[in-house]
Amino acid sequence: MDSCAVCGCAASQRCGKCHLTAYCSKDHQKHHWKAHRTECSPYRVSQSEALGRYMEASRDIPAGEVILKDSPLVLGPRQVTMPVCLGCFTPVNGTYSCTACGWPLCGPGCQGNSLHKPECHLSQNRASKVEVHKFMQVNQMYECITPLRCLWLRDNDAPGWAALSLMEAHQGHRRATNVHEMNQVNVVNFMKQYLKVTAFEEEEIHRICGIIDVNGFEIPGPNILGLYGKACLLEHQCVPNTMRTFDSNFNLVIRAAVKIPKGHHISTSYTDPMWGTANRQLHLTTTKYFKCSCARCLDPTELGTHLSSLKCSQCSEGLVLPSPSPLNPEVWACNSCQATQTTDHVEQFLKQLGEKLVMLKENSLGISESFLKSTSSRLSENHYYRSDVKLALAQMYGRGGGNSQQQPDLKDLPKDLLERKENLCREVLELADLFSPGESRLRALLLYELQATCRERHRRLPKRLKNTAQSRQMLQDCAEWLKEASGILQRESPLQDEYHLGLQAEEELNEVTSVLARLR
Ligand SMILES: C[S@@+](CC[C@H](N)C(=O)[O-])C[C@H]1O[C@@H](n2cnc3c(N)ncnc32)[C@H](O)[C@@H]1O
Questions:
Q1: Where is the MYND-type domain (predicted)?
Q2: In this structure, is residue 484 part of a structural domain?
Q3: What is the Å distance from ligand 1's center to 403 Cα?
């Protein structure tokens, strides 16, 4: 039974807005409103047959508002990882191991790290210490660590275990999959046979593996997976209305990316919003066990962008789209001449192109441009493969350095390539704003590149044109883009490169502002 937020007595009513704070009577609720209104959660938890539990806005939420800050219930290495320190997650090479259990650590400093406690205790049933031999490559021994940290809650943290146990595991769907088989070998059998951990039933271990897959958040950068008791309730949408960041303590912060009106569902993206429909669906069905049927997924044109469309090889104008629906394409058909291609043929073609794309090396400007040229007659202009390459090029042009070929710095970039960089930024930005609306990380990265090209154009102007209204406006735009980019990027954790780019953007903003002040 809940207890009343005012007197602590048994409470049978809840705040009608957030559905979280409880009261014993209407009087106590009224009395508490003055204090509660500032903290009344902007979301409430609802439930439907199609979604299970989900969050909806309990009032209008303005863009940028923090909806939720959630501390991790469990942090552990991702399932597929090379050996990392089980205290701080940095890669390890075996030079130091925990003196109690034998799992490699980065050094004695991490031996007392409380994160390492579960597997350290649970690995001590062995007659000898754990031995890891395979470093600097994926090592299956680590697949058991995050499950062990979850299972540890059962006997050591009752509220944490209760929160974890409420999470969706999709056990029924998982049972017939390869993932279940792999979990049986690498987690269940490994725990029993190698670690000699016998305190958990097989079914319980599988359920935890399901909970990790369905609810885990990958923390960008340091190879960590986190489970969060509240944020796990966020539903997926292919055009989400929130953005998420992690602070340096791995707390998850969810902000409204756009205004979310009262009653609207609050969503995040479980995939990369810049992927095409088939790839997003594949990820969702194989790791989250549901088919997304949002407006974007149901629209063969992906909201008019043609992110997944091909160009017709039979006629010169048409685009080839999945038909009758992207969720169940029987064929791919040209929207001009109606010529069709089998789904298998399209998948095979995209698979081969995808393999080529993976081979494009970082800093290979020429090869990336050739990829765009060679695919221009086969893929739609915005196709996700092309957009991926355009994004890479937008960031590469003017970066300088480079490994094999020396790439020019921005100041030495020929005029046509400076223009090319600017156009690429604008093209990808349009897609990013549509699929990750609001203040997304991708928008910030693109604004940073865009302002760099625009400032460089200003720098190249002859002296007499540097102080016209038009050229001052160029710098004014740069200042606005830098301000927005630095604000977005500095919300990231200082553990991430993006945060440091945010600091750099702020410094550059100061430079632009002082140039503008001198010009006026
Ligand atoms: C991280 S959990 C979200 C919370 C979950 N609904 C619950 O009740 O615990 C992810 C699961 O929610 C459901 N879900 C989330 N977004 C969905 C969507 N757009 N369409 C259908 N199901 C969705 C799926 O079952 C998915 O595996």
A1: 4-40
A2: yes
A3: 44
**What distance in Å separates the CA atoms of residue 281 and residue 18, rounded to the nearest whole number?**
32
Percentage with pLDDT > 90 across the chain: 87
Arithmetic mean of pLDDT, 301-306: 98
Pick the atom of ligand 1 nearest to 237's CA: 19
The domain containing residue 487 runs over which residues? 371-519
Residue 371 has pLDDT above 90, yes or no: yes
The beta-carbon contacts of 497-500 under 8 Å, at least 24 apart in sequence, are 497/221, 498/441, 498/444, 498/445
Burial group, residue 117, by CB count within 10 angstroms (0-12, 13-18, 19+): middle
CB-based contacts of 121: which residues, under 8 Å, 6+ apart?
Answer: 101, 152
Q: Is ipTM strictly over 0.95?
A: yes
Number of domains in the chain: 2
Residue of the CA atom closest to atom 19 of ligand 1? 236
Give the mean model confidence (pLDDT) for residues 500-516: 97
468 occurs within a structural domain: yes
Single pTM value for the model: 0.91
Is residue 35 in a domain? yes
Residues 6+ apart with CB under 8 A from 340: 323, 331, 332, 333, 334
Q: Residue 334: inside a domain, yes or no?
A: no
Q: Which has the closest alpha carbon to 387: 413, 445, 426, 356? A: 426
CA of 252 to the centre of ligand 1 (A): 18
